[in-house]
Amino acid sequence: MKTFLFALSLTAMLSLNSNCVNSTSQKGPTITEGDSLNSPHGIAAEKKPVTGADQIGEYVRYLKGKKVGILVNQTSIIGNKPIVDSLVALGVNIVTIFGPEHGFRGTASNGDKVSDSVDPKTGIPAISLYGKQKKPTKEQMAAIDLMIFDIQDVGARFYTYINTLGHVMEACAESNKEMLILDRPNPNGYLVDGPVLEDHLHSGIGMYKIPISHGLTIAEFAQMINGEGWLPNKMQCKLKIIKVANYTHTTPYTLPVMPSPNLNTQQSVMLYPHICMFEGTIVSQGRGTYMPFTVLGAPLLKGKYDFSFTPKSIKGMSETPLHQDTECYGLDLRKYDMKHIEKAGQIHLKWLIEMYNAYPDKARFFDRTQSKQMGDIDKLAGTENLKKQIIAGVSEAEIRKSWEPELSYYKAMRKKYLIYP
Description:
Largest sheet: 7 strands, mixed
Number of strands: 15
Oligomer: single chain
CATH topology of the domain at 266-404: Aspartate Aminotransferase, domain 1
Order of helices and strands: EEEHEEEHEEEHEHEHEHEEEHHHHHH
Structural class: alpha/beta
CATH class of the domain at 266-404: Alpha Beta
Strand content: 5-15%
Shape: globular
């Protein structure tokens, strides 16, 4: 990992780390605010993805003299520093910080409401957009000239940051304010698969008529929202996009900061589109352990599997997990070779089918009424058919056929909004 230093002012400096954590640092060239980390003496020579945020020369001067709102969380970094701290040091006038699910610093548990506050480091008001308030108010929008969106997404329909994107685009369109998107790679960008959301199943974990894994970056998704007329009254949000350099949808990308408390490893991020549907079953996905979304299990699967784990209450991650304090038996996917899934390019259904067939009390496998920690499998899948098909013993091949022609239509439509090959 190379560390770059750039001048913030005559006295302030920030170190910019262009790669992932746990690498060895060495001093690199000095870069001023007018430069881009995509310049020839920067990391572009190594042909690694350069996030929009790291290309400071492409947008910092554009922000000068403007009152800025910014929608960010712990993944919003320039190098290895929080973007808010970096931009304030560069003289950008950030008026309001907006935070999504898990909060501005990313420390709230799954589904927890996050209160408004004042960021202790900068003194800037921080407004939560996860709870009663889904989008900035007219008064909050009136106080800014421009909104920045810089949040790492993982490419799944039920990951709520794309919903937040839509809500804030709506507020920008209503107020005739521009949204500046500092784009980031989609770690699951290669994957476009799953049932397309049925209209009657719209919810907080599925707002848009897209498959489980949509295969878009945040900026591409924003263009789709505009292009498909998904904002109320087909309003349009004015967008300015700072693209990721050296990126394609098949470029491997290891996240430098984990996107939420229960996606705390690269393996969990890669497995997430494939096993989040287990939240609509009696099977734990490892919430309440330090290996969430990399293990699967339930108490009644004892004797069917040798591997076991016991969910516990963990503050800031899962405080009331499914099967709390009860040993669960199932699958350990921490070392599963994801190349098998990447080669197939499909949502992996075999684990869901296998564990349903292994479960001794099948009537309770999808019965969310037995636990408030369970989700709605129909809303997670985006269709009522998947549960019925698994119960009926329909083959995986036939299940996949039932996703057509909607999936093929989406894939064709998606091409209109691609920024990257």
